[in-house]
Amino acid sequence: TEELLRINGLSTRFFTEQGQVNAVDNFDLRIDRGDVFGIVGESGSGKSVTARSIVDLIESPGEITDGEIWYNEPDLADAVREDRPEAVDGTFVDLRRISPERRRSLRGTSFSMIFQDPESSFNPSLTVGEQIAEAVEVQRRASANPRSTRARTRSEEYSLGSFVLSSFLPSKRYVTEASRERAIELLELVGIPDPVERADEHPHEYSGGMLQRAMIAQALAGEPDVLVADEPTTALDVTIQAQVLDLLDELQSETGMTILLITHNLGVIARMCDRVGVMYAGEIVERGTLEDVFDDHVHPYTEGLLGSIPDIEGEAGRLQPIDGNVPSLLDHEMGDRCHFADRCPNAMEDCLEHPPEYDAEGSNDHAVRCVLAAQEYDERRAIPDGYFDETR
Ligand code: SF4
Ligand code: MG
């Protein structure tokens, strides 16, 4: 296996009137090429912000403030080495240190993203086929001429909220016969029946599951290395959910692409992933193989999550509520302690300092951010009474 992505110390903050929100806090991750890596966590844990940070979709008042996103791409490394040697390490390129134009040109061809709500990825006034053909054409032009600025498709403009502008753009701007044919192939690949006819229909003529498939087709237009899927099946009913997961699974084995799958559903993780990171309050608190995390976990938060038996057929796969709420992630409220300390049944005095990341026993990729990974219980002192009331 070959390492594809190496993320070090990534932090994304939102600067709000209430204060600084540390949505992603000192986030580390390694993903191998061809893996399906899952990130699981409750809503508000920072999963989506993490995904958007990786594909460069953070908007004001949000900002990536720290960290490195090393991406293993030899051609890109060669292209960047001249101008920005500091952004290159062997065949790896730090995406945070390349120009915004170059970063944008990777969208679609290196990284693609799919979302929970496919309607947000399609412009309602254009046919599905036309939008996918545009994505094909834009990616084709961007790869043919890496130094040019990559244009946006009208579905991208729509998702970014520039609908008024995009509806006045000349129609069939980028659609050629070849890209239209490719769009139909892609629709067929994702299992749309009668793709030639369906290509000429508008998004509202598709069912939810079909539109989800079409969104996947659109995301595959540039043959991305990495598909980032943010809760791709959450809005679908259970049968369709299973079909879309099967589709992602098939596409992964056919294309060898890497998938970063964001979900709150442990059943989805168990079914799809090779490795998993458990996210809590902006950081990965435990990560490893499925076995490390499901069977040999150390972190009390992971333990709490697994209180439910994952089962894709029903609601049991939803995360089990743990007493207390996900913390606000406001910098001044979180302080320096372990992010889970106020909900953790095992919290002791040494948890009032933020624990470093430990490698646990077993596979060397299994890492845990908790003092329990390093210390014996009997060495630990209780937290003084009333501590959390005073700091809240
Ligand atoms: Fe619980 Fe302490 Fe581990 Fe945090 S460091 S999860 S509070 S035992
Ligand atoms: Mg989310």
Automatic annotation (TrEMBL):
TM ranges: none
Cross-referenced SUPFAM superfamilies: P-loop containing nucleoside triphosphate hydrolases
Positions of the ABC transporter domain: 5-306
Membrane topology recorded in Swiss-Prot or TrEMBL: Peripheral membrane protein
Catalytic activity annotation: Ni(2+)(out) + ATP + H2O = Ni(2+)(in) + ADP + phosphate + H(+)
Compartments where found: Cell membrane
Chief location bin: membrane
E.C. number(s) listed in UniProt: 7.2.2.11
Gene Ontology MF term list: ABC-type nickel transporter activity; ATP binding; ATP hydrolysis activity
NCBIfam families: oligo_HPY
Subunit record text: The complex is composed of two ATP-binding proteins (NikD and NikE), two transmembrane proteins (NikB and NikC) and a solute-binding protein (NikA).
Protein name: Nickel import system ATP-binding protein NikD
Taxonomic source organism: Salinadaptatus halalkaliphilus
Lineage of producing organism: Archaea, Methanobacteriati, Methanobacteriota, Stenosarchaea group, Halobacteria
